[in-house]
Give the backbone structure.
Amino acid sequence: IIYVNEEESGALKRGGFVVPQNRHVSCLVEDGVPIPEAIEMDCTGLRLKDVIRVDRLMFPEGVKASKRVNQNRFLVGTVFGRTAYTEEDAA
């Protein structure tokens, strides 16, 4: 799983980061479709303490999550970071 559109997330722009819980996701690939090197995760609009699930993953055409991946319970990661700037940041 690779992250895209990180610049579209206020939390990630201010030094936040995603703590990954799962770095891989089982996929089903249709016949004739090339196996993707990675699955992209859209970071647009992520905020601190957001829990990232399968719905943020962008599967290429002909690729989908395996039936073994529980859509409600599969956890990609959580967004962490500082909630406010300190005086040292202002200096």
User: Anything to note?
Assistant: The beta strands are 2-4, 17-20, 27-29, 40-42, 51-53, 57-58, 63-65, 75-80.
